[in-house]
Amino acid sequence: QLHKQSDSLINRAKPIISVDKAKILQNVNVIANMQYANNSNFQDGDYTGSNFAMNQFRLEVKGMVLDNTVFFRFRDRYTRTPTVQSVDNVDHSVDMIFVGINLSDKFSLAFGKMCADYGGYEFDMNPIDIYEYNDIVENADNFLTGAQFTWNAPKEQQFTFQVLNARTKTFDELYDNAPDIEAAKFPAAFVGNWRGSFAKGLLSTFWSYSLITEASEKQVQYIALGNQLNLKKVLIQYDFKYMKDDLDRLGVVSGLIPESYLPNTALKTDYIEHWLRVQYNFAPKWNVTVIGMVSDSYWKGNLDTAVSNDHIRTAWGVIPTLEFYPFKQLNLKFFASYIGRDYKYSNTAKTTYDLNDSSTGQVMVGFIAPLKFL
Amino acid sequence: QLHKQSDSLINRAKPIISVDKAKILQNVNVIANMQYANNSNFQDGDYTGSNFAMNQFRLEVKGMVLDNTVFFRFRDRYTRTPTVQSVDNVDHSVDMIFVGINLSDKFSLAFGKMCADYGGYEFDMNPIDIYEYNDIVENADNFLTGAQFTWNAPKEQQFTFQVLNARTKTFDELYDNAPDIEAAKFPAAFVGNWRGSFAKGLLSTFWSYSLITEASEKQVQYIALGNQLNLKKVLIQYDFKYMKDDLDRLGVVSGLIPESYLPNTALKTDYIEHWLRVQYNFAPKWNVTVIGMVSDSYWKGNLDTAVSNDHIRTAWGVIPTLEFYPFKQLNLKFFASYIGRDYKYSNTAKTTYDLNDSSTGQVMVGFIAPLKFL
Amino acid sequence: QLHKQSDSLINRAKPIISVDKAKILQNVNVIANMQYANNSNFQDGDYTGSNFAMNQFRLEVKGMVLDNTVFFRFRDRYTRTPTVQSVDNVDHSVDMIFVGINLSDKFSLAFGKMCADYGGYEFDMNPIDIYEYNDIVENADNFLTGAQFTWNAPKEQQFTFQVLNARTKTFDELYDNAPDIEAAKFPAAFVGNWRGSFAKGLLSTFWSYSLITEASEKQVQYIALGNQLNLKKVLIQYDFKYMKDDLDRLGVVSGLIPESYLPNTALKTDYIEHWLRVQYNFAPKWNVTVIGMVSDSYWKGNLDTAVSNDHIRTAWGVIPTLEFYPFKQLNLKFFASYIGRDYKYSNTAKTTYDLNDSSTGQVMVGFIAPLKFL
Fold first, then answer.
1. Which residues of B touch C11 (CB under 8 A)?
2. CATH superfamily of the A37-58+102-372 domain
3. Contact between residue C230 and residue C241 where contact means Cβ atoms under 8 Å apart
4. Quick one: fold of B21-372?
5. pLDDT band at C188, cuts 50/70/90?
């Protein structure tokens, strides 16, 4: 039983010389990515309740498995019900499972389920460091299966190019009964990305353009422009994001319009976002950060010509946070954070789609750790 | 892709000096907690069937991740379908995921999903060593998210205090349509616990008092008094447990009363339990243990004043077991066990709620191991 | 919390002397079994679509945990939704979780969920090396819970004998409303297996006979005869398989007959299969393999005496593959494969059961790796 269905010399599934165990142990890490908090929630100013929650728990294994040549990464959430997805065949809880190969110092390839390499610093951070995402990252399909090519260009510039499945579910599962739209035979996402670094890291950029085929003749285009200024004790990050959906893949607008008005997924939606994060390391072991963000959503596909205004809502967010790192040797921080959200609807949205302004607040006190435990 | 969404020096998610890998490997263990058996079942004396089953399989990682200061524990079941719970956001299969910090030799803190620190030796044992729980432990929510404070007092006494979520599901999910009861805004459990040790471990105590807010003005109170006498070759453990539910959180009574009589969760239930375990190490590598247990359940909330008797049933249990440890170096035992249960209903329960006496039996032959495999 | 519900000296769940950590690390491996590909699908000659998919991802931990005496294996799929099975109590995603003991050089025992030790080289290969299974292995319940006894006989012969649960689900779950059939009280599978090796490995055999009690007086008998000729650069494997179901456990025939004709699981079905695999190592690091396979299915249980022909269909399969192993030290291969299937129905099946001939094709390009990462 120990050897049943495993490696067989004859089929050459076993390497001729095996990689040294000690070397693997040194180069592979097992990490428990955790965000734990006591969350207190407010709706339009009224306290609605509190709870303790493991807001995030993603178990991760990653590292080099063959010298400097072959790398591997696996990350799985215990905060999402695992259900096999029909397109890529992997549990929904699995963020990443891929193998990569460094062809040289300059070029590498990776294959498997991975992070779509969208630009912007908001999406590049470890998710446990995010207290709340803006609308696009929150609602997009961020972990997709496919292939990546990376070029480490001279002068600390990096370019990546990905071909990925457009999503993890089938067209029919996502857009049940979408009228007059035909599914694509190979719904794919093409993501191009530039990571730039200038003046010894003082200024960095992280820009991407993505073209995603959602259905036959229905594309999603997504531009994300991340910019960072690193002034030692102060770090400033600014992302601009623009997404244009022929078919509303993001689903925010489709979720807002009442089903009685629009029974199907909306056509022609636009999302425009700004995200600014300032971090100040005001004392050893202490950081204060403030995030300000805004997301505008538009529906240009309303067939009723009497409705001329395509602006649906402006979602504001402000997130001040205090962070404390008690240990020199361990990546663990305690934090206190407030997440304020304000949803302002256009007059058209209020009168035509029956939507109302609202605001939510959340006080979070807890800890965050990408805890290396093996 | 290897570094996407992971640690970033700038955001100081990476430690200045990392803990030595060899030290972590020495201090962290990976354990497969298993109880495997061939189970043969009997109902009221008749043989009903047999099967092989992995009765329990809980994978566990635990240990010190920073010297003697920071500890970590994660335990996940492969014998329970993982479904994210709405209150604490973690898969139902996850027993524990917490981080703890030793503030000094005397004080420590822990945060995350953990064992509710209820007293009693029955609940303190590794679940794989239990062949069948008595009613309270079997039906209670034992793994909850929150915080624990521990005081290692002088003379081998230990006191712990916990604040936890009252449960993992919301009020609406558990008590659908409960009439005239309002959900609490912060349904919390407060657990206080005393572990005592006297006469060099000859006598130990493990007592707790818990106050759990189930709903607005509906509390659960739970007292568990564990006592142990350790006479070298003979070990005697006796638990007394008393639970008083304003709203029947345990659910045993609510499950017994026919839905036609009581469509909702019962109000005012009481549970009183005794649990006695005697273990005799009669030869090297051999143990014999006997457990005797009894659980009485009461429903004081019946509004029909004609029903004066609130006693519902007495559930008896007797579990004789023979255990054999073949290996000196490995914690693995083979066992043969019989689980006899006898359910005796009160006359009122028989006539008013249409319940009938019954008995079940189970013969189990198998192995148990908290197998350390990394 | 670190020690709650874990080992306790008193209950002797902790070994007297613990196995050395370094020794465990040396003897236990953690393996990510992966098959990743871009799949392009064809139906009756027409292109129907493409996608990237992690066709297989099975995480595995295995090795000796106590010198040469106690071994352990655990394999879990992230490509199957985990749901606890009612008979063996383990998640459906778990292929194996067992503990084994070498009683001597000659005899060993294993207990837990394991591979049913069916013969044939098709089933013995690591599943990631299989691009598509023939009907029997594809549809059988291959991972069952029970016990195995192994005898390493002289002259490189090995005999195994297993007693296993017949399945992971109950009779009622599988055969809802089966008329006039009574469930068995202990539905068990008995599997006997012979692995032979002759002329220094030039010729090998892998034969098994299995008797599976599906229901009271309803048996499944399964014979699998695997044969292998190893001519250094060329490897030839041929399996003959024959399965006879009193009650159609395999379900292929029951799935083909329209529900309007047969509302329940079919009685008396037969399956006969041939599977031939030729592998040619035509250059260092390069293999070419061709698999040819055919599966015939019969329904002898049709009560309509007017239907005299019991042959339902012949399913053909041909799978040519090119494989490339770029690394000497790592078990990773890139592959390009074509899977052609052709389904030919008998005239009776066409006229009586309204079935039509069809064919499917799949082009796969990807990588396969049992990646050892710890």
1. 125-126, 129, 235, 279
2. Porin (2.40.160.10)
3. no
4. Porin (2.40.160)
5. very high
